[in-house]
Structure formats: structure tokens, C-alpha cells
Design brief:
Elements: H1 21-29, H2 43-56, E1 60-64, H3 67-78, E2 84-88, H4 93-102, E3 108-112, H5 117-123, E4 128-134, H6 146-156, E5 159-163, E6 180-184, E7 198-202, H7 204-216, H8 223-233, H9 236-255, E8 262-264, H10 274-280, E9 288-292, H11 296-305, E10 321-323, H12 335-340, E11 347-351, H13 357-369
Helix pairs in contact: 2-8, 3-7, 5-6
The structure holds pyridoxal-5'-phosphate (PLP).
Length: about 375
């Protein structure tokens, strides 16, 4: 063919044709590069991995079947019986569940405040092999002190993993000292709420080891969703720019509404991590914005009164969605634990999309008006 497609083709083949026994030896021996079996690798995953690795400044990346797979694979690679993981408070609920599950395999854990390297220092044991934090916590959007945590982890000889799902492009954790980054590509990387994938980006050594485990445990990503995620990635920078601007505007407006008890957005001067956000993130603070309507009843009424913004417990879509953390992502928390973390029944988490900010405000303000 004299021409090539502009858009990367979708390679659905589950297996690849091999020319003979010398080639099969060369492929398995690594002297020749090529695909053999799609669970171990395929062109669409390689293309996505290369893009995410370059975006994160990592040597290599691995595409997994979900964000949870991208967390589980490096944890399986790095931890064994007797080891310890330091886990930041307020991580995605299923991440806590995953770390709890590891206790059945002899891996213990303790938690630390991601805004305080001293708190991480206190959580370490002589057996800490992994430190795991999220750049922006869910749902209160506390910004981890990534450079400070990285220093403590490095001194302890632990691998520092950062779940960067909420903050792609806002900063680059590896440049700030993290060893590896995980993403739920289901969210902002995909950007259209139509795929489920995850990506791990880090050293070639970690990615290779995690990749082998991911294939063995059946956690690698499929071609079509890799293809979709790669397409999503091509508009990520524009989406981050636009949604950050809109979210900052909405956060400022919400702050002035009496029915809103608190607004959590790192771009606001009142946010406890605003100074760090200015230094680590600069001028863009992301699409996620949380506010408190004071009670479960008010949150429920608000959700029902909204005309355009749906209650859809995910994030990162081109259109604005909302979630109610206490009944969804943090459902497994006891009321006492949720209250201790400041996760109150009136919290609404908005994932801001690409709509006209005036249209979004019209919907939000009519539902807030109804709460008067
Ligand atoms: N990390 C964070 C911060 C998330 O919000 C989620 C999902 O909501 C995940 C990881 C897991 O991603 P996935 O649903 O793609 O497995």
C-alpha cells in the first residue's frame, strides 16, 4: 500500500501469525519484537502506553483492564508476605478494599495524611515497601504533598506510587519524585464515559514485572478500549484547560450561595491546600469540585431538582455529572469513619464537563434556589 491510515487502526486479533520455529524462539527470547497473544500485548495497548509514558515522563507504561488493575498489578509486583504498605487517607474506596484484601496474603498496611510527610514518617515500619497516595483526594480534593512524601519514601527505600486519576496534566508526579503513576483511564484520559481501562506508568523494570503479573492474572486491557482511550487522550489538554476554567468559576459562584455550607476546590483561596496547589499545579486546578448542602435530604432534593446534570457516579466525562460520595464511592465507610474524614451526607461532587458555564450555572442555581 502506498498510503497509510491517518488514524491508528484497531487490531482486534487475539493472536498473531508466526513464520516458523526460529521466529517463535526469537519472539519469546526478545531478539525480535512482535506480538504473539493479545493478552500479553497488542498494537493498540502499545500505542496508548507510549503516549501515557511520554505524558508522565516515564520510561514505560502498561495498559490494564481498569484503573483497579493498574493499581493491583504493581502492588502484586512489589509486595509479598510480611511486607507493609503505607496508604494515604481518603483514597478511592475500592483502593482501600484492595489493600485490605492484601492482608489475606500477609501484607499489612497503615494510613497517613497525604498532606503531611511527618504523618507518612510515623506510618512507616521497617517493612514498608510501598507508599501509595492520590494526587487529589476524593471527595475533598486535598492535594498530596508529593515532593515531601517522595522524599520520605525514598529515604525508607519504598516505592512511591501515585494514583493520578483526578489530575492528569495538572502536574507530573514522576517529575515531583514519584516512582510510578496509575490512572483510571475510564475517567479523564478516556474522557467520554464509554470505556473502562487503566494505565500504570513507571520504570521499565516495574512495568515489565507488573505486565507479566497483569497478563497472568488476566488484568490487561483490550484493543477497542485502548483505541478509544488513545483517541480520548488527543483532546485531554483542551479538556483539562476548559474544565479547570469552568470549575473555578462555578466554585467561586457556589461560595456565595447561602444554601452551600462549604466548597472544596483547590483553586479557591479558602482551600486548605491552596498554597501548595499554586506551587504544584500552577493555574489549573482540575475538573473536580465538591460542595456541601448540609444534609442528605438537601442533597437528595438538589439531585432530583437538577434538570440537566445527571447523578452518575463516575467522573471525567465531556458532559458534567455529579456524584454523592456517602452513598456511592464511600458507601463502605461507617458514618463515624466518614464523619472523621469530613465526608458528610450533604456532599455533592461535581465532575465538570465542557458545557457553557452559563448553562451549567443556570441548572445549578435553579436547584439551589429550590432549597431555600
Ligand atoms: N482511582 C480513582 C481515584 C478512581 O476514582 C477510580 C474509579 O472511580 C479508580 C481508581 C478505579 O478505576 P476503574 O473504575 O477504572 O477501575
Amino acid at each position: 500500500m502506498a498510503t497509510e491510515p491517518l488514524v491508528p487502526p484497531l487490531h482486534l486479533s487475539a493472536v498473531y501469525k508466526i513464520k516458523g520455529l526460529d521466529q517463535v524462539d526469537a519472539l519469546y527470547g526478545g531478539e525480535q519484537s512482535g506480538y504473539i497473544y493479545a493478552r500479553d500485548g497488542h498494537p493498540n495497548a502499545s500505542q496508548l502506553a507510549a503516549k501515557v509514558a511520554s505524558l508522565e515522563g516515564a520510561e514505560a507504561a502498561l495498559v490494564c483492564a481498569s484503573g483497579m488493575g493498574a493499581e493491583a498489578a504493581p502492588l502484586l509486583a512489589l509486595l509479598g508476605s510480611g511486607d507493609h504498605i503505607a496508604l494515604s487517607e481518603g483514597v478511592y474506596g475500592r483502593t482501600s478494599v484492595l489493600v485490605n484484601e492484601l492482608s489475606r496474603y500477609g501484607v499489612t498496611h497503615s494510613t497517613f495524611d497525604p498532606t503531611s510527610p511527618e504523618s507518612l514518617q510515623d506510618a512507616l515500619t521497617g517493612k514498608t515497601r510501598v507508599v501509595f497516595a492520590e494526587t487529589l483526594s476524593n471527595p475533598l480534593l486535598r492535594l498530596a504533598d508529593l515532593p515531601g512524601l517522595a522524599e520520605v519514601a525514598r529515604e525508607a527505600g519504598a516505592t512511591f506510587l501515585v494514583d493520578h486519576t483526578f489530575a492528569p496534566l495538572l502536574c507530573r508526579p514522576i517529575a515531583l519524585g514519584a516512582d510510578a503513576v496509575t490512572h483510571s483511564a475510564t475517567k479523564l484520559i478516556g474522557g467520554h464515559a464509554d470505556l473502562t481501562q487503566g494505565v500504570l506508568a513507571g520504570s521499565r523494570e516495574l512495568v515489565t514485572r507488573a505486565g507479566s503479573l497483569a497478563s497472568t492474572f488476566g488484568m490487561t486491557g483490550n484493543p477497542f478500549e485502548s483505541w478509544l482511550a488513545l483517541r480520548g487522550l488527543s483532546t485531554l489538554a483542551l479538556r483539562v484547560e476548559r474544565t479547570s476554567t469552568t470549575a473555578l468559576e462555578l466554585a467561586g459562584r457556589l461560595e456565595r450561595v447561602n444554601q452551600v455550607y462549604a466548597v472544596h476546590y483547590p483553586g479557591l483561596a479558602v482551600h486548605p491546600d491552596h498554597v501548595r496547589a499554586r506551587s504544584l499545579l500552577g493555574t489549573k486546578f482540575g475538573a473536580m469540585l465538591t460542595f456541601d448542602l448540609g444534609s442528605r435530604a438537601a442533597a437528595d432534593r438538589f439531585i432530583r431538582t437538577l434538570e440537566h446534570i445527571p447523578f452518575a457516579p463516575s467522573l471525567g466525562d465531556v458532559s458534567t455529572t455529579l456524584s454523592h460520595p456517602v452513598t456511592t464511592s464511600h458507601r463502605s465507610f461507617t458514618p463515624e469513619r466518614a464523619a472523621a474524614l469530613g465526608i458528610t451526607p450533604g456532599l455533592i461532587r461535581l465532575s465538570v464537563g465542557l458545557e457553557d458555564p452559563a448553562d451549567l450555572w443556570a441548572d445549578l442555581s435553579q436547584a439551589l434556589e429550590d432549597l431555600k
